[in-house]
Amino acid sequence: MSARRPRRAVQLVARSAARPRFPLVATRSAAIALALRAIPASLAPGGLCAAPAALAVQPASASASKSYDVPAGPLGTALSDFAMQAGVTVQLDARLVDGLSSPGLHGSYSVADGFGKLLAGTKLEIARSSTGVWLVRTRAASVDTPAAADTTLPAVTVAAQNDSPYGPTEGVVAKWSSTATKTGTPIVEAQQSISVVTRDQMTQQNAQTLNAAVRYEAGVQTETRGGVATRYDMLNIRGFSADTYWNGLKQIGSGMYATPQVDPYLMDRIEVLRGPVSVLYGQANAGGLINQESKLPTVQPYHEVGIEFGNDRHQQATMDFSGPIAGDQHYLYRFTAIGRQEDGQVNSTRNERVAVAPSFTWRPDDKTSLTLYALYQRDPASTSYGSVPATGTVLHDPLGTIGRSFYDGEASFERFSRTQEAVGYQFEHAVSDTWKVRSNARYYHIGQDYQSVYGTTLEDDYRTLDRATAVSYEQVNSFAIDNQVEGNFSTGPVDHTVLAGFDYQHMGTHYATGFGSAPSIDVFDPVYGAAIDSPPLTKTRSSSNQYGVYAQDQLRYKNVLATVGVRQDWANTVTSDLTDNTRQWQNDHALTWRGGISYMFDNGIVPYFSYSESFAPQSGTDITGKAFDPERGRQYELGVKYQPKQYNALFTAAIFDLTRKNLLTTDLNNPNYQTQAGEARSRGLELEAKVSLTHSLDVSASYTYLNTVYTKDNSGLQGKRLATIPSNQASLWAYYTIHGGPLAGLSFGGGGRYTGATYSTDNSFEVRSYFLLDAALRYDLGYAIPRLKGSEVYINAQNLLNKTYVASCFIGTYCAYGYGRQVFAGLKYHW
User: Fold this and answer.
1) What is the per-residue pLDDT across 152-181, written as a single tens digit (0 to 9) for each?
2) Could you tell me how far CA 91 lies from the centroid of its own chain?
3) Burial of 294: CB neighbours in 10 Å, binned 0-12, 13-18, 19+
4) What average pLDDT does range 84-102 have in this prediction?
């Protein structure tokens, strides 16, 4: 093995899986800590990071000329890009460049001339200290002596990374991700399709559910249950179910009704990874995963409070505080909270929530970080989880159309109450310049009471809806831990980033469930108040465990990148029926792997090809008593990513072939049993663009084509399309901010979402396509009234034209209306 060589400059940032949301500096100077508070969001973690000396780039000659290609954008980012390309270190007070932009730099310059060109037209200049560090200062400053230069505060090293694999990113373009590889990798280098929804995008669109946050992303179908699924994050990726993760660990539910859900206001970013992911994450659905990254402590102090009102008696209050404790950047905190209440779209229903998320980070030195975080989220009520029949909504009913607000339940019986509590930690320690270790763990508890009356079948008179009841009382406790070792080294001309890990997941649940009948109701003239009998309950206890070991190597030879990963899993489940005093065991194991290769052209174009696998255990046995094998998924993906150097953007395109095998279907020889002869396939094309131009314009656009079909099935579905999955989806969002002139401080945006036609389960009828418009308007009051600096007012409208549409029909003839118009207006103050 050869000595470790410097890697590409773009990778010379000390990436911390314990979340590098702050400059990694070792000094305890109070002056440094106070100055760091002034770092603007555009330059905060990711834009400006202090790299350890072991990773510093060797200084370039001040007089030698070299060709540079620095895109236009914020001045701090331009200085960062130039410093990276020149191989030098820059120090500055971040307040000097706050709000300044640069036209970029293209051509051949010396280091001094290049900095001078970037700073032209500003009140800033460049000087070089006796240590070779380049210093940005105002022209009135003096660096006549080395001592004067060397005492410039704060000493913040400009690094190449313009955003971090974790935490906030300015605008809508994120260039790094932690989800695809677990190592913190540029998105263009990840050989699998991935999108990042930044905090800026969520704020622009005022996303209040996970479904709303990802509705503009390629390949994601968020309307599988329309406007009644606020209590659950129900969505598909590439036509198949997807898992949700929080801070890199799976959100484990009970399999009944107790499913975790964390409010998106508590998140800094949301990453969508498409396709099988078992090689890094273990048992998983074939569609992919959505990883939500929490707002965690920052070095830069941040304080925000807000209030919001809207239609349907919507009321909301938020707060978000972060920064060093007592001015010491070695101890950081964050406290985020939200409270919300509103009427549901369906009559007689409510949404209520309060969530609190504190966190604390301890950094004893620049090699070690420990973050502790917690969650308390209480949902005393949630809107109906019911449905409407297809006849009278999608299909013609001679008596008329069933209203969007129709309630198929009984308010006197309806109940949904969920409490979620979690504590976790993220730890990282750099053992050396080559090796680092990480550990990420979380305990999660869910307590939930649920009972409901729901519609089943519409009678032949076209108005009488039969109904049933469902009751479930659940307690779920889960624990997950992921331990990793990462190494960066070279063997001859090949650079390696290797990852090895062991993870463990446990879930224990105790629940009592029952299903019964309820009186029918007239869908056109409903009369409520009928006596509802609670059904008898069946008590069940279940416990499951998953152990996994995995290894991955990311190799680089010149412009060729390759990734190879392999994993072995063991999973077991014990389910006890406490009512019948019976017990079932399920033991599974699976070997999964993935591989990918790509080539990085100098112009920013990166074509790639990858193969990946997944597995998911299935409960039950066939007629012989043999336990069912896990469902298996496999995907072939061919794509291209383009990250232009002239401006801040990321373009991606992918075609894929994704297949689920071992699906359960009817045993033709024994119809009362099942066999694993089923198979479903999804093929498609995804196009996505994320663009942030001139520090003013953000654009996010996507198009998805899907061909989903059951390729093998014994129950009559073979050759038919998957329910709720459209063949075509498209979206466009644009947001513009005015920085100068009489309208300075005004931001406005809008977007459109098209969803093509979908089909019922048996494909006997079609659900029509629909197109929805969204809009946003925001104004910074500090531009008009200086003493109100930090205050802003805003208004968002989703489904602006209040279009009535059926989002999907999901089981038999059960259908759901989509969200009607939602209007939110609010005031925020941050300092």
Assistant:
1) 333 333 333 345 676 678 889 999 999 999
2) 33
3) buried
4) 75
What is the rounded distance in angstroms from the CA atom of residue 24 to the CA atom of residue 16?
9
pLDDT-based confidence at residue 131 (cuts at 50, 70, 90): low
pTM of this structure: 0.83
Cβ atoms of 334 and 358 closer than 8 Å: yes
What are the E-state strand segments in 431-528? 435-458, 464-491, 494-522
User: Which amino acid would we find at residue 74?
Assistant: P
pLDDT, tens digit (0-9, with 9 covering 90-100), for 584-640: 999 999 999 999 999 999 999 999 999 999 999 998 889 998 889 999 999 999 999
Token pair, residue 422, equals 């979690």
439-496 residue pLDDT tens: 999 999 999 999 999 999 999 999 999 999 999 999 999 999 999 999 999 999 999 9
How many other C-beta atoms can be found within 10 angstroms of the C-beta atom of residue 139?
A: 10
3-state secondary structure of 278: helix
Paired tokens of 630? 């896990």
What domains sit in the chain, N to C, each tagged with a CATH number?
22-150 (3.55.50.30), 176-292 (2.170.130.10), 293-514+536-830 (2.40.170.20)
Residue 272: which of 652, 800, 776, 764 has the closest Cα?
Answer: 652
214 Ramachandran zone, left/alpha/beta (phi>0; psi -120 to 50): alpha
Neighbouring C-alpha atoms within 13 Å toward the C-beta of 372: 4
Beta carbons of 761 and 811 less than 8 angstroms apart: yes
Q: Which residues does 583 contact at the CB level (< 8 Å), separation at least 6? A: 574, 575, 576, 577
Q: Is residue 1 exposed (0-12), middle (13-18) or buried (19+ Cβ within 10 Å)?
A: exposed
Say how far apart CA 578 and CA 250 lie, in whole Å: 28
What gap in Å lies between CA 598 and CA 213, rounded to an integer? 30
State which amino acid sits at residue 615: F
C-alpha to C-alpha distance for 9 and 308, rounded to whole angstroms: 44
Separation of alpha carbons 526 and 521, rounded Å: 6
Amino acid at 373: Y
Backbone angles phi, psi at 541, to 5 degrees: -125, 135
DSSP three-state, residue 767: strand
**Going by DSSP bridges, is the β-strand pair 134-138/90-91 parallel, antiparallel, or unpaired?**
parallel
- The C-alpha atoms of residue 82 and residue 89 are separated, in whole angstroms, by 10
Spatial strand order in the sheet of 806-811: 388-389, 814-817, 806-811
Tokens matching residue 613:
């696998």
Residue for token digits 């990513």?
641
Name the residue type at position 2.
Answer: S
Distances (CA, A) of 551 to 180, 192, 298, 439, 591: 14, 17, 31, 15, 12
d(CA 293, CA 112): 40
Number of H helices, E strands in the chain: 7, 44
DSSP string, 298-315: -SS-EEEEEEEEETTTEE
How many Cα atoms within 13 Å fall on the side-chain side of residue 663? 20
Closest CA to 302 of 258, 332, 263: 332
Looking at residue 95, what is its pLDDT? 62
What span, in angstroms and rounded, lies between the C-alpha atoms of 797 and 825? 9
Tell me the C-alpha distance between 192 and 597, whole Å.
10
Could you give the C-alpha distances from 644 to 20, 144, 175, 638, in angstroms and in order? 25, 40, 11, 20
Q: How far is CA 74 from the centre of its chain?
A: 25
Which amino acid type is present at position 409?
Answer: G
- Eight-class DSSP state of 395: B
